[in-house]
# Entry
Amino acid sequence: MSETSVIQRVGIEGMDCSNCALGIKRYLEKKGLQQVEVSFANAEASFELSDNLTYEEVVSGIEKLGYHVVEESDETAEAAETPEKGWSAIEWKLAISAVFTLPLLLSMFLPFAVLHQPVVQMLLCLPVFIIGAHHFGGSAFKSLRTGIPNMDVLIIIGTSAAFLYSLIGLTFALGHNFMFWETAATIITLVLTGNVIEHRSVRQTGSAIRELSKLQPATARRIKIDPQTGSETVEEVSAKSIRVGQVFLVNTGDRIPTDGVVIWGSGGANEAMMTGESLLIEKGENSALIGGSVLETGSLKMRATKVGKDTALAQIIELVKRAQANQPPIHKLADRISAVFVPLVLLISALTFLGGYYLFAIGFTQAALNAIAVLVISCPCAMGLATPTALTVGLGRAAKNGILVKSGTVLETIAKAQTVVFDKTGTLTTGLFTLQNLHTTLPQEEFKSILLGLELHSAHPLAKAMVQALATQHTPLPLAEVTELKGMGIMGKDAQGNTYMAGSYNIADEFTTDNTHNVYVLKNGNLVGWADLADEIRPEAADTIRLLQHNNLQPILLSGDNEAKTQAAARQLGITRFYAGKQPHEKLEMIASLSQQGVTLMVGDGINDAPALAKASAGVALSNASQVAIDAADVVLLNSNLRSLNTAIALCKHTLITVKQNLFWAFFYNILAIPLAAVGLLSPMIAAFAMAFSDVIVIGNSLRLKTKRVE
# Structure
């Protein structure tokens, strides 16, 4: 996808099963659209427009297939989270069908003569058949228009065959052996039962998005300032009306209404909804605030900086949706099989009837029942649900833990990882430096005064660390002229005309061959000393490395720092393979080489390591939801905690395992059940029950990911 391409997203109403989504996807791809994803669970589609097709033409095409397109808006997510009041349409269909089907089933066991009357049975079956013809027939017709026949084609053919066969038997008074009213009604009712279970369960699989959406408060306290008197008044407004630049009051216990910055006051914010970290984050003036987080202590005024779809929360919801819609490579196998499965089943059903009737002479009735059972038992709905339900649950759970996996494809890549490459500074270390050692030929106080006087004028992290260490006990040397030397350091002059320089080894290479120190200091062109700083190792880094090794993943340290410091960090963390002094282009070459040898993850801070993150099989960034990190990496650890890396890998592995389990069950079920139905060991009613049961197993197995122990 080009950098300038724009992904369009629309809601789609009327999809009855995952095969409907597959049919729409194939239709859009035939029209030449790129990056097409259609999610049955989220009831939406995304695509990149082609040059020869407009957005309006795409919408019109989907509508002509029999679906209703709902254009995306700010309220879409909110509407999706509104709980259904009362029963849904499909639940009403099931309830009505069950009322009429129950007497037909009871007629098989109870001696009431009226229930055995063919006309009464027909009248009981007719409402159920009409519901089934409307529900399954409409869906089947839509799928045929897309060129991808779905499971409802099998259902409508099977139930119509049973109904018409019974109707012929009633019309010509052929006797009880020609009456299968209860078969037609029961199949429809049982399949509707499976649809209702699927409808409810798929909503459960999307609970992570709903829970994230609910974090957005409905109202906010906006501060109005009188331009004449300067007095402030507070009014409660809808969150939808918030605009950039407006000022809001947030008190203890309030949800922060949108992304913004503190302009007055202070407090402690709980940002666990974004980072997975429950510790309070102290907020003061100029601190950034995340919309949807909770101010648990204090009171403050904030100015809105981002609203609507631009907020961090909205972007995370969008990323989760996009990841859930994007299917991993393993799903393509299921797609290909599903595309040819229905025509194949129709052929098997026809051969079952012809073989039973002509070759084995089992009679027209039994041959027809066997053929109907093949149609019903073969519905590939479980196959279509295998991947999207597992992805929706797995990626949703990751998002709730502050882990953003950007696509299903990346999920499969991470699950197969063999090597994990780490940047050092800011990734395995905190990025917070402490002054460790000073060496000088000058008096200590003079040297510290020179160092402090120079570094006060630098914004470099090392300079800030030295200023923090020296400023409380020492006086900076007054400097009249200060100049920054790009890529080298900083230079200044005092009132007596002495020249001072502080910087990297580049300014001292003519005086010493020792390049192991952080900062070198020159006075009047002579080396007078150096300073060493230590970058603290993250407290969780060693445990993270140990767990990766325990799970047979090889950690590698790849750093631009010198050999001694890189080796010291590697030894402290238990990493046996490390590379030091690597320039950015050398890092890229190493990552490319490692990725060719096996699936390689690159873990970095998401800013300096962006090229390496993009080059690896999959990139993992530690970031506080910065846009750079989100753009550069395939996975973002919002809490910047390395422990989440193992959680992310484990979740990806277990999600992929669940997908494989679901696909195995769906394939195994059909391979086993079709022969049984073909030889008459499964009646159409039992087949309908078994088909619905198959869906329940797949959905239930996916829902286990919500609470399954993954580490």
Summary: The mean pLDDT is 82.
